[in-house]
Automatic annotation (TrEMBL):
MsrB domain boundaries: 11-132
Listed EC numbers: 1.8.4.12
GO MF annotations, alphabetized: peptide-methionine (R)-S-oxide reductase activity
Name the UniProt record assigns to this protein: peptide-methionine (R)-S-oxide reductase
Catalytic activity: L-methionyl-[protein] + [thioredoxin]-disulfide + H2O = L-methionyl-(R)-S-oxide-[protein] + [thioredoxin]-dithiol
Keywords from the UniProt entry: Oxidoreductase
Broadest EC class assigned to this enzyme: oxidoreductase
Keyword presence, Oxidoreductase: yes
């Protein structure tokens, strides 16, 4: 399905497609509780995809343990995420979302490890993990 078709799905259709937590994060820009996602401890080789449309956003080699309670990545697959300023708190953060369906994923910070210095802090309920061995 082309990106423009994904972005034209109504909220009622998204509610039918997603569970409540994923809907609130992806479509309402909510944030899950820290340390609540099983993906924090995911260490298998594979890919992390948008829970809304299935677009691959991160590889397992980009993941690291930031200690923050959310799945974190040093980088993203180019072209898969778009950013915008988020001014909902008393300071401006950089929010990012899936480039295909527009689903909110998390925020990117400048306190990550080398080589990028970035921490792509993602909501686990906004992702699905696709293990490499499931494709063989």
């Amino acid at each position: 399905m082309p990106a423009k078709d994904w972005q034209s799905i109504s909220n009622d259709e998204w509610k039918e497609r997603l569970d409540k937590d994923a809907f609130n994060i992806l479509r309402k820009e909510a944030t899950e509780r820290p340390f609540s996602s099983s993906l924090n401890n995911e260490k298998r080789v594979g890919w992390f995809a948008c829970a809304g449309c299935g677009q691959i956003l991160f590889t397992s080699s980009q993941k690291y343990d930031s200690g923050t309670g959310w799945p974190s990545f040093v980088d993203a697959i180019p072209g898969r995420l778009e950013t915008k300023p988020d001014r909902t708190l008393f300071y401006t953060r950089t929010e990012y979302h899936c480039s295909r369906c527009g689903g909110h994923q998390g925020h990117v910070f400048d306190d990550g490890p080398a080589p990028t210095g970035k921490r792509w802090c993602n909501n686990g309920d906004a992702l699905v993990f696709v293990p490499e061995d499931s494709l063989t």
